[in-house]
Amino acid sequence: MSYGPGHHGDARQMPETAAEIARAVRSGRLRAAELVERSLARIEALNPAINALVQVDAPRARRRAAEIDATIARGGDPGPLAGVPAAVKDNLCTDWGCTTCGSEMLRSYRSPFTATAVERLEAAGAVIVGKANLDEFGMGSSTERSCFGPTRHPLDPTRVPGGSSGGSAAAVACGMAAVALGSDTGGSIRQPASFCGLVGLKPTYGRVSRWGLVAYASSLDQVGPLARTVEDAALVLSVIAGADERDGTCANLPAEDFAGDLHRAPADLVVGVARPGRGTGAGESPGMALAMERAAQRLRERGAKIVDVDLPHAGAAIAAYYIIATAEASSNLARFDGVRYGRRAELAPGQGLADLYERSRSEGFGPEVRTRIMLGTHVLSSGYYDAYYLTAQRARRRIKQDYDAAFARGCACVLMPATPGPAFRAGEKTADPIAMYLEDAYTVGVNLAGLPGLVVPGGTEEAGGVELPVGVQLIGPALGERTLLRVGAMLEAR
Hints:
Blueprint: H1 18-27, H2 32-50, E1 53-56, H3 58-73, E2 85-89, H4 116-123, E3 127-132, H5 166-173, E4 179-183, H6 190-196, E5 199-202, E6 223-227, H7 230-240, E7 270-273, H8 277-280, H9 286-301, E8 305-308, H10 317-332, H11 353-364, H12 367-379, H13 385-408, E9 413-417, H14 433-437, H15 444-449, E10 453-463, E11 466-475, H16 481-492
Parallel strand pairs: 2-3, 2-4, 7-8, 7-9
Antiparallel strand pairs: 1-3, 4-6, 5-6, 5-10, 9-11, 10-11
Helix pairs in contact: 2-3, 7-16, 10-12, 10-13
């Protein structure tokens, strides 16, 4: 069963990619108002079953579309994403609606400002139709842990769409939006992209402003796009990247056009192929192994030199990540105590401030968030800091050095699996945290190293009578998105 964009709404041939939509709207061949109505109709038809979007502001979307059409009627240019329906993950602040992070703690929180990435998306002409579901505070790999309930896979509702940006991925895969913003702390854009047959880009740490992104792990989080094509991902990155004085971790670099030379193959291209599954304990499914072979062969046919590379410390990535990420989470989430931020518990007579903190946090946070806060508090505590946290930071440095060694050999990027296999069944891994964490075995190292990672569809694998997507991952050196996207376009070309 497919929920592709041609299966509902206007019977005319409608553009399906963001690039096609923007060209049609800017030329006057299509009105933004038509597109937003088509998007809202798909949301009405499909979202009750998929649960990709947790907030939809139809009147606001219609006003935005009308403004874009009016700008074009006056001879103006509303921007490179003119009229493109978009969704944003609900851990990105907006000054409309609520910013919930999928948590009871923030279910009614209304932000007084809008995140930089969202501001830039709208300034480029995109029409935001809704905010997307996620694992609570971005902590999960399946979008099953949200106060709004789980998001379902677009092709098989018994399976997960990946996480934590599963709502963003499902919205794009179902045609509710043409593009979406997600956040990636350990694979939360790339793993859902693989599961849902999309392109997902985790930019270099600092390439995109994190101002207005509710922090999970501040040294790992990065905002990026989910899209149907590499060109669409490049267009969104061109819009949201660039210096932001409000974010001290954002690189002081000007905006770039990442889509302009997208289809010009890099000269003398060398691609390293890494198969670190044995060291991580994750392995590869038959479909993923085949996708890897096909991707390497496709690049070889297009003139690339393929070499094997070793990532000897890949096996330490999961352990290092879940120490560093939980340590930072325990610090970042301390503010949500029912006093400074978040849901405040009702106290019985005679209870005091300590009771308020305990009850507010126990009632506001779900079990996975509470687990990670406790783990982070433990690894930062006296007597354990050196043994756990500093050791994890040393492992982090070694992981980055492994990638640096591959790039020093002349590799423009490294090709590796995005996930161990296709989407797993809902509920299959929720009782086994180690099994769930291993779903990120191929992605967390990229965040630890601060590098850009791009996932493109690599094929399908039959599971339970359904052909499910699998994606392959390209990893580049810091600020290497331009080459990474061009190699991704080579893989995408038929």
